[in-house]
Write a structure and sequence with these properties.
Blueprint (H helix, E strand, L loop, with lengths): L1 H18 L11 H8 E5 L5 E5 L5 E3 L2 H10 L39 H7 L3 E6 L5 H12 L3 E5 L5 H12 L2 H23 L8 E6 L4 E3 L7 H5 L3 E2 L11 E3 L2 H7 L3 E4 L12 H4 L2 H4 L3 E3 L15 H13 L8 H12 L6 H7 L10
Parallel strand pairs: 3-4, 4-5, 6-8, 6-10, 10-11
Antiparallel strand pairs: 1-2, 6-7, 7-9
Helix pairs in contact: 6-7, 7-12, 12-13
Amino acid sequence: MRATKALARLLLVSLILVSGMGCSGVAQPSIEPRVQNETYVFTDSAGREVEIPRDVSRIAPSGPLAQIVLYTLCPDKLVGNATEITEPQRWYIDEKYHSLPVFGSFYGDTLNLESLMVAAPQVIIDIGEPKGTIVEDMDGIQERTGIPSLFVEMNMDTMSAAYETLGRVTGEEEQAQKLMQYIDRTLSETKQKVAAIPHEDRVTVYYGQDEGLTALVKGTVHADVIEIAGGLNVADVEETVRGGASDISMEQLMLWNPDVILFSPGSVYDSVRDRPEWEEIAAVRNRRYVEVPVGPYNWMGRPPSVNRILGIRWLANLLYPDVFSYDMVQETKEFYDLFYHVHLTEDQAGVLLSKSTFSPAN
């Protein structure tokens, strides 16, 4: 009887061993736990559940804003860009990223799907403010490409939290923490100091682009640096031009009579002193106007990404130098080193700032 039971136990053990072997007679690993360890379900800012790799090393940005943010966080994980790096931008972006393929935007009809598939990203990341159709948009991108696609909300108030999320997704938590600390320090310090400036001492500001009479409207993302830095945007009007702007007349600008005028890069800054109609504006006559710094991106926006954080420091220092006593050359070098991974000389930083301080009045 004992011999029979022993034999039965032996047969049972043999069956178990055989069932764990393949044709080669070697035990095969369990597939299910391995799959669970390689991917996980990420809930994005649109509330969508997306299965993404735990180890993300190949990323495609959905558009210009995502391209900028991801470049500051994990440039070596980008397999392509949404927009081409222009010649002026190449001065501030390492040469090894110049030849990345350009996919175009995932919104609209500019996407080069063939180029995207060749680059083989593991995930597509969209970053920005949510539109009403964000769920449908992201689902459409994912269905069209067959690549996990996720959305991370980012505006000025959520910028730090967005970096924290992106740091976890990309595995770049250390860099994310450095960027978050800079952002949090800038916003908290600016808010505290601006709150102590009496309203009657606030500087009124006009921000014009193109020929100078397209105003960046108060309350829009493209002009929010003004309010954050403590300026009072005189263009408190309805948006009539796409991109947070409104066309105005010279007469309207004279009525507003701003203390300071900001001109967007490539507008009329260089020629405004030769235009008699502009000399009628006190800010121009008193040389209280500047051009917003640019390189690789506009410090006030266009696109409204992390470039605005340095813009806040620059504009606060310009408007209230006694309150924000920054050495802007050093501030510029620090920001570009941390966010754009480029070590500027003092001369290079000076070139960026060359049109962004007030000229002596004649």
